[in-house]
From TrEMBL:
Keywords: Repeat. Residues 7-114 form the Teneurin-like YD-shell domain. This is RHS repeat-associated core domain protein. Pfam families: TEN_YD-shell (PF25023). PANTHER family: PROTEIN RHSA-RELATED (PTHR32305:SF15), PTHR32305. The keyword Repeat applies. Gene3D superfamilies: RHS repeat-associated core (2.180.10.10). It comes from the Bacteria.
Length: 180
């Protein structure tokens, strides 16, 4: 669990197995904010003694994604996701694979299976727990446009490094400071 500092007060996140921020604790261990989401990440309710202040200013929500209060979209490091429609608002830079019809929908979120899959960077979904072994990771099909390989090979390397080796989200924000 990690947290943040707001106006000199430390707060800590409560997460579920999907990495959703489902609550916030104050420095005394009291839960001061609770979040409830639907399956696609739409915020159903925010409650608690600090729901209107800390609950609104907290930038991390569903699956630990950065939540833009003004638009209602989540930022996944590469593009924005709309939890109302269950789709990204712009197309993916990675293309689908033969035989995997759903991977050709460049706006689909988590292959239309948000309960079991995560897509922390907006490039490729994965199962956080491998259904077939105990390795803990099963990637969805990932293919890269040839033009990306030629025009920006370093971008492709960064994408795979993020997907395969770094499943944590680190963002820069105005009034929050991460605390360990």
């Amino acid at each position: 669990m990690f947290g943040f500092s707001l106006n000199g007060v430390n707060y800590y996140y409560i997460r579920n197995n999907q990495n959703d921020i489902i609550g916030i604790l104050d420095s005394n261990g009291n839960q001061v904010v609770s979040y409830v989401y639907d399956s696609w990440g739409k915020l159903v309710s925010t409650s608690g003694s600090l729901a209107e202040t800390v609950g609104v200013q907290n930038p991390f929500r569903y699956h630990g994604y950065y939540y833009d209060v003004e638009t209602g979209f989540y930022y996944l490091q590469s593009r924005y996701y709309d939890p109302v429609t269950g789709r990204f608002i712009n197309s993916d830079s990675l293309i689908g694979s033969t035989g995997e019809l759903n991977t050709h929908n460049m706006f689909a979120y988590c292959g239309n299976e948000p309960i079991n899959r995560l897509d922390p960077y907006g490039f490729a979904w994965y199962y956080p727990f491998n259904r077939y072994s105990d390795t803990g990771l099963e990637m969805g099909p990932v293919y890269i446009k040839t033009s990306d390989l030629i025009s920006s090979p370093s971008k492709v390397v960064v994408i795979f490094e993020k997907i395969l080796f770094d499943h944590s989200s680190v963002s820069i924000f105005d009034t929050f400071v991460l605390v360990q």
